[in-house]
């Protein structure tokens, strides 16, 4: 038996912000799963900034998406048919299917999800890659400790909101940077940061200086751009900078306008003797069990709260992705592709 799957594919490499022409909706006929494979129905699809890099021809830490293939992504799925040991019809799994509504994949590439632990969509967010990224970046690479002053950019985003809450759980002060008064209010009131600075206001620099006090011990970097230029001079000597992302630069097609800021960046790193550590979370997979233990406990006792931005329709994923890259999301962006049997 075959099934027709809907897919959002890469038709051409985007030049700047991805368009609907770059990411069209197409159909593909899938064969029945072979031995060791499963047919899955996608319920929730994760949208994350790193996907912009996978659409590019530029060399990166992971292979890019090939022309004509679905955009890479993790998803929460229901097993519709199984020829794989250990997986049965109706199981809920985490898998890397891409932007699709159905897929045939190897059973060994699926991880079963226990729906009783938390809403299944959270395994794309606070219990999944964004949560693990926040935990690894701050604890393993940032080496956060009680008394630290931690600054995190994109503080209302899927990773940033968790970074600040982990900082608080470890006895540190959490200062967020976000865009707009609503996001800043949420960062402070919902996620419990000590303060949040709005980078869209005219007094961003002076407000950030006031929030820095005698300097930041850790800057968790998600953004790059002007925010990075403003934060680095406020770092303490021997400060730590876990480098997670640079969303402000993902759509650049040429060098940013204005003066070359590289000398200023390097001067701050040298003079303040900073440790800047780029990291990709799958390099730290040996810490995953410790992360799950910490995060499940924090969720149960209310130490960590989360916000999801769940939107409907696979066909709308390109528009949602543009909104994500423009900062229009409120929390972890997830696309609901199909019915959730656990609701």
TrEMBL record:
The keyword DNA damage does not apply. It comes from the Bacteria. Residues 19-335 form the Enoyl reductase (ER) domain. GO terms for molecular function: oxidoreductase activity, acting on the CH-CH group of donors, NAD or NADP as acceptor. InterPro entries: ADH-like_C, ADH_N_2, ER, GroES-like_sf, MDR_fam, NAD(P)-bd_dom_sf. Keywords: Oxidoreductase. PANTHER family: PROSTAGLANDIN REDUCTASE, PROSTAGLANDIN REDUCTASE 1. This is NADP-dependent oxidoreductase. It comes from Notoacmeibacter ruber. The lineage of its organism: Bacteria, Pseudomonadati, Pseudomonadota, Alphaproteobacteria, Hyphomicrobiales.
């Amino acid at each position: 038996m075959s099934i027709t799957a809907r897919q959002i594919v890469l038709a051409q490499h985007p030049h700047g912000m991805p368009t609907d022409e770059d990411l069209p909706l197409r159909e593909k006929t899938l064969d029945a799963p072979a031995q060791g494979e499963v047919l899955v129905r996608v319920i929730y699809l994760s949208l994350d900034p790193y996907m912009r890099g996978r659409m590019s021809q530029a060399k990166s830490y992971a292979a890019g998406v090939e022309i004509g293939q679905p955009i890479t992504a993790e998803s929460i799925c229901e097993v519709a048919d199984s020829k794989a040991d250990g997986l049965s019809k109706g199981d809920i799994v985490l898998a890397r299917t891409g932007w699709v509504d159905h897929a045939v994949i190897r059973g060994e590439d699926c991880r079963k999800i226990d729906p009783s632990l938390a809403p299944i969509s959270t395994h794309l967010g606070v219990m999944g890659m964004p949560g693990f990224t926040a935990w690894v970046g701050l604890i393993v690479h940032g080496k956060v400790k009680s008394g630290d002053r931690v600054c995190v950019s994109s503080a209302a985003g899927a990773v940033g909101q968790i970074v600040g809450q982990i900082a608080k759980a470890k006895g540190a002060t959490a200062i967020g940077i976000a865009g707009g008064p609503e996001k800043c209010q949420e960062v402070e009131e919902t996620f419990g940061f000590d303060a949040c600075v709005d980078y869209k206001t005219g007094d961003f620099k002076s407000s950030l200086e006031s929030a820095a006090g005698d300097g930041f011990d850790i800057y968790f970097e998600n953004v790059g751009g002007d925010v990075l230029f403003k934060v680095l001079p406020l770092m303490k000597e021997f400060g730590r900078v876990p480098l997670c992302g640079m969303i402000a630069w993902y759509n650049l097609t040429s060098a940013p306008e204005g003066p070359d800021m590289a000398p200023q960046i390097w001067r701050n790193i040298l003079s303040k003797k900073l440790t800047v550590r780029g990291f990709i979370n799958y390099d730290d997979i040996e810490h995953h069990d410790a992360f799950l233990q910490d995060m499940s406990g924090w969720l149960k006792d209310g130490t960590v709260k989360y916000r999801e931005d769940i939107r409907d329709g696979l066909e709308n994923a390109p528009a949602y992705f543009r909104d994500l890259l423009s900062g229009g999301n409120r929390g972890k962006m997830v696309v609901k592709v199909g019915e959730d049997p656990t609701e």
